[in-house]
Amino acid sequence: MNESLNSLTPSKNPQLVRFLAEQGYRLFSQKEARDVAIQNSLEITNMTRTLVLLKAQGWIHSLKRDLYVLDSVLIGGQPIHEFEIATRLVTPCAISHLSAFHFHELTDQIPQIVFATTLTHASVPRTPRGELFTCQGVRYHYSQVREPHFFGIEKVWVGDVQISITDLERTLLDGLIKPKNCGGFMEVLSAYRSLNELNLSKLIDYALRLDVSVAKRLGWILEQVGTEDETLASLMALPFAGFIKLDASGEKKGPYNHRWQIQENI
């Protein structure tokens, strides 16, 4: 085995990792490695074995099946960010919830888990016991949504790369859908109250594209921060039979707000 590794070291394999690094493939799949090899006229007949050997030599490391990362000595600049890893472990994908809250400076909480959102049909890495997937010591949590609800995403620079993340308005609304994943409802409420300016038309439009429970919670909160009734009319007009818990993750208790059909369970 050592003889095989040594025989590959001075020629094709270092060239492959060099080309991968030069062309920005910090993280890559076997197909991407093969494409780079073809583009640079490298004759590698067995890419699977080549990647196994590169891994054994320490040139690359495996994050999961068919996802590799170049060794840090080849990358230079900023190290691989956990957001970059999250959005390559699952595609399509956007950083969201508490991770996005922290990025948008809506909370002082330091996330111990990387939160992201993907589609219901996406392949999400799972452990046999149903625990959060861990990669290089970092835990990753993926929420899955239907395609019509996969919106409100922007590209931002994190270190040397661009990643997808929920924008400010969608991040705030995710706090009304899954407050537990955003630091708790009181942290979410504090985020709304802390903002001096909100793009209300965009926020309300997003809420109307989600569901009535989100819209009613948003209306309740916006009224609390002094938004005029005229602005809230479209949210208030949504028909709904019954009452919606203000804190989606909380118990069903507390007074009823008939104006917004909200049970104030905080």
Can you give a write-up of this model?
- There is one protein chain.
- The chain is of the alpha+beta class.
- The protein has 3 domains: 74 residues, Arc Repressor Mutant, subunit A (Orthogonal Bundle); 119 residues, no CATH class; 69 residues, no CATH class.
- It is elongated and about 70 Å long.
- The N terminus is likely disordered.
State the helicity in percent bands.
40-55%
Total domain units: 3
Number of strands: 12
Main β sheet profile: 4 strands, mixed
Global structural class: alpha+beta
How do the strands of the widest beta sheet line up side by side?
4-5-7-6
| Mean of all residue-level pLDDT scores | 90
Overall morphology: elongated
Low-confidence stretches: 1-11
Based on CA atoms alone, the radius of gyration comes out at 23 Å
- By DSSP (H or I, 4+ residues per run), the number of helices equals 12
Terminal-residue CA separation: 63 Å
Return the string of H and E elements.
HHEHHEEHHEHEEEEEHHHHHEEE
Approximate strand percentage: 15-25%
